[in-house]
DNA sequence: TGTACATCAGTGAACGCGCGTTCACTGATGTAC
DNA sequence: TGTACATCAGTGAACGCGCGTTCACTGATGTAC
């Protein structure tokens, strides 16, 4: 926060962090360029030295989010080896952990209305991150008999949907916050039931 | 759209519809009181004859959404009788159908940031709608052996999360829109796998 | 080591804009007699 | 059926506000000699 003289030193990143902070606290529409500049101790006009405008700033925040997200997923998946099942479950848990630890990034990525195509850099980061989920699903897919094996893209979609739904409905304020269960429990048991449905967990566990 | 003279006749509902339309097209932050008034062919000040302000209008839109939602769920559940399983699946499909048919309501309910507690009427409508989901889950729950039966609130949470996740990620623009599958297929197969995991569908179907 | 100068990050004033909200008002409607 | 009057829905002008963006500028930094 402390400026060192006239030049900020690392304004670009400071603005991104202000953006993330504001988005996390007040939602995507709560973020204003002016407020972010204020938080970084700088004039709104200074923002234009580093970004093309408001949306460009959000896009960069989202890009960094996909970068972190991809790394986390990749790590969770690798760590779960050699069991594909364990790897898959770890990936699911990592998803929720990410949403909790990086709420600003999460919102910038999934709730800000910024299209994945907005910048080439954003698109590349998002594609890579989604690729990790896909890879994880494909590895798990090997363990299902080929004739009854659903397309990997399909069940990676299921897991993603359930994870995202849990985050949106149960991990923040409204509207499912009245649930007596923690988001972690909901997601873990939900994925458990789902994997059992695929025949990947013994019915009795 | 046509005003009949000085008095609008049904301004209150016209404003709500403009609100829903704007929210559906441009997201919750794309909705402005002034624009809604313009769309209803009326001065912004006229809005205050019917609502306390901007947020109050959104809350009423959301309330009507919960009302419709509750009715639809209730109907889908009843129609699926006497099989609890069929009723549950119908309820899941009705969820997606609702999100598709009433996008403005859906966004007002789940993405506008309006708290369920904002007005007593909104709270009542939301509670009732959630009660229907719960009832559906409880009925289905009877068919699971008591010792391995998860709490109904738990698996209604799972289904809700997956449904909501599918809507958010695959039914609109970003970011999962690149998926080769339709939201309907994703949700239906996802719920299928899940119910199989609960032992409610034969593994081989 | 010292000076001249190019580079560039940030300033601050200004802009036009649309917003939500308020106010005293006026025109239309409906009811009492 | 006709008139007087209360009710109330909508007007239109005005407000203060913070926004995103632009511009010519200035102060700090770093490099060449």
* Strands of chain A, count: 0
* Oligomer description: homodimer
Beta-strand fraction estimate of chain A:
under 5%
Query: What's the structural domain tally of chain A?
Result: 2
CATH topology of the largest domain in chain A: Tetracycline Repressor, domain 2
Radius of gyration of chain A (CA) equals 20 Å
CATH superfamily of the largest domain in chain A: Tetracycline Repressor, domain 2
Which pair of protein chains has the largest interface, and what are the residue counts?
A: A-B, 49 and 49 residues
- Roughly what percent helix of chain A? 55-70%
CATH architecture of the largest domain in chain A: Orthogonal Bundle
| Amino- and carboxy-terminal Cα gap of chain A | 52 Å
Overall SS class of chain A = mainly alpha
Largest sheet of chain A, in brief, is:
none
Order of helices and strands of chain A: HHHHHHHH
What is the general shape of chain A? elongated
Describe this structure in words.
- Chain A contains eight helices and no strands.
- The longest helix of chain A is centred in the N-terminal third of the chain and has 26 residues, at 54-79.
- Chain A has two domains: 1-51, Arc Repressor Mutant, subunit A, CATH 1.10.10.60; 60-197, Orthogonal Bundle (Tetracycline Repressor, domain 2), CATH 1.10.357.
- The mean pLDDT of chain A is 88.
- Chain A has 205 residues and is mainly α.
- In chain A, helix 3 (54-79) packs across helix 5 and helix 4 (84-101) packs parallel to helix 7 (152-170).
- Chain A is 64% helix and 0% strand.
- The interface between A and B is large, with 49 and 49 residues.
- Chain A binds a DNA duplex (33 and 33 nucleotides) through helix 2.
